[in-house]
Design goal:
There is one protein chain. By secondary structure, this protein is α/β, with parallel strands linked by helices. Helices cover 36% and strands 19% of the residues. Helix 6 runs antiparallel to helix 11. The two termini are 45 Å apart.
């Protein structure tokens, strides 16, 4: 059993007033955001203003300026004054991540945030970005070091001063993203299929999600041959598809299905990966963790619509039972698949999971998967690839990325790409032996398992890992997708139903 941390432990407290001396003395750090054209007189009005004004006078550049002043008393409080740059959402979140990193250098437990000289949209933009970055930084990622004596204290409370700003959605986003990142970082001998299923069920139960597990025997009766082909090489018979259901009212069918690839370790199977290619394959389940985290964030927000989370959980191991090139298997929707490369296992497990999710007749399906290296090759690890069976959806999908700071880029989905997947012995090839454009071909393959009447969005998570962190996230594992999906479902179209109606009306 995995011992889960207290996700979302950092509290956020808002005060409509400026910090009093008592407030200031209770903080370990105060970070103040000011305009780029702040004057010395404005700085002198702030806590430790004389020191800040003197530092400002000596600053070589006022762009993205950061001034740090330390109290002369024994108290640990520092004050940082930083200029708010003019940037897009991604740039603002990146600025916030770097500023919070400076604010946390001396491990404050209580961090204060405020602005001076900013009004309206700029003030909200600054504070929301800093709160998002601070909550992301507050997560204790998994560690298994035996010496824990010198562990630094972690941020436990954020104190936001001045007129209140809407932050509830940020708390939910942070909770979902923390869950996705933390689970993805676990070693594969800790996050086994059974342990993952138990942890996800436990997290779901705490947020009004009921669980149903489809084990191998049940999947056999459902005809899920593509999933079972991947799972058959595992030593343990604990693979399966976990379905978590959220039903806030009397609805019995989901409006939205969130589907995630959960390969808890990927050896490549019979087409074994080389050494370096296997080092981070414990993170190949990140898509399912993002689906889970997104579902928990939506439940935390008490959204008024029903949804399902589908997690395809298995290993892809090498053994005498493992599936192999030129096997022909039958998926749950009756499609026969000619296996080409056993390291293209993600699209196999997703094929059946998408087909089973579609049987419940949701009005929208979104899937998440660390699916192809070619998407990383096309976009690097800064953007995620987005695909849809509704080409007219691309503007709204791209805008959701720009506005959320989790940037996506659309790829073509024309029918003639299927020529590369034509098989002489089955309905479709699993992938092309040539490998070019594999991210597009993988999406075309998956589209076979979603009825055309259901709008479908596929995220190939090329930005699931980025060495320096990404946007407001400070860790290499980014949990990309939680914030994006909440932006898409809650803001871009006003409501999921409006988005669904727009996608459904657009046809292909």
């Amino acid at each position: 059993m995995i011992e889960l941390p207290d996700f979302g432990a950092a509290r956020v407290v808002q005060s409509a007033l400026k910090p009093s001396k008592r407030d200031f003395d209770s903080l370990d750090q105060l970070t103040i955001v000011v305009p780029k054209d702040v004057t010395a007189a404005q700085l002198r009005a702030l806590p430790q203003g004389a020191q800040l004004a003197a530092l400002h006078a000596r600053a070589k550049s006022k762009d993205e300026m950061v001034l740090t002043s330390r109290m002369s008393t024994s108290h640990a409080t520092r004050v940082i004054a930083a200029a708010l740059p003019v940037k897009d959402s991604f740039g603002t979140l990146t600025w916030a991540r770097k500023l919070i990193a400076q604010s946390l250098q001396e491990n404050p437990v209580r961090l204060g945030l405020m602005t001076s000289g900013l009004t309206g949209a700029d003030r909200e933009r600054a504070l929301r970005a800093l709160v998002a970055a601070a909550l992301a930084a507050a997560l204790d990622m998994p560690t298994f070091k035996s010496d824990k004596k010198h562990k630094s204290p972690k941020l436990r409370s954020l104190h936001v001063f001045g007129a209140p700003v809407v932050l509830e959605d940020l708390r939910a986003q942070a909770l979902g993203n923390d869950i996705a990142r933390w689970l993805t970082a676990l070693p594969p001998n800790i996050l086994t299929a059974a342990a993952y299923r138990e942890a996800a069920t436990q997290l779901g139960k705490a947020h009004s999600l009921t669980a149903e597990f489809l084990g191998e025997k049940k999947l056999e009766t459902l005809g899920a041959g593509a999933f079972l082909a991947v799972a058959q090489g595992n030593e343990q018979r604990d693979a399966g598809i976990l379905r978590l259901k959220y039903r806030p009212g009397k609805e019995t069918r989901p409006e939205v299905a969130l589907v995630g690839k959960g390969i808890i370790f990927d050896t490549g199977g019979t087409n074994l990966k080389p050494f370096k290619g296997m080092l981070d394959m414990h993170t190949d389940m990140q898509g399912s963790a993002v689906a889970l985290g997104t579902g928990i964030a939506l439940a935390e927000l008490e959204v008024p619509f029903a949804f399902d989370v589908w997690m395809a959980i298995t290993e892809n191991r090498i053994s005498g039972r493992a599936y192999k090139s030129q096997d022909v298997v039958t998926a749950a929707n009756g499609t026969t698949i000619q296996v080409i490369h056993t390291d293209a296992e993600g699209r196999m497990v997703l094929a059946d999971t998408l087909a089973l999710a579609a049987r419940e007749e949701p009005k929208l399906i979104i899937d998440y998967a660390t699916l192809t290296g070619s998407c990383v090759g096309a976009l690097t690890e800064r953007y995620t690839g987005v695909f849809s069976n509704r080409a007219s959806a691309y503007p709204v999908l791209t805008k959701a990325g720009a506005d959320s700071g989790e940037r996506v880029w659309p790829f073509p989905m024309d029918d003639d790409f299927d020529e590369s997947l034509r098989s002489d012995v089955a309905d479709i090839k699993q992938c092309s032996p040539e490998g070019s454009g594999d991210h597009i071909l993988a999406a075309r393959f998956l589209s076979r398992f979603v009825p055309r009447k259901i709008p479908w969005i596929h995220l190939d998570l090329s930005a699931g890992q980025h060495k320096e962190g990404l946007a407001h996230i400070p860790t290499e594992i980014t949990g990309f997708g939680v914030r994006y999906t909440l932006e898409l479902l809650q803001k871009q179209a006003g409501s999921p139903r409006e988005l669904i109606e727009r996608l459904a009306a657009s046809g292909r």
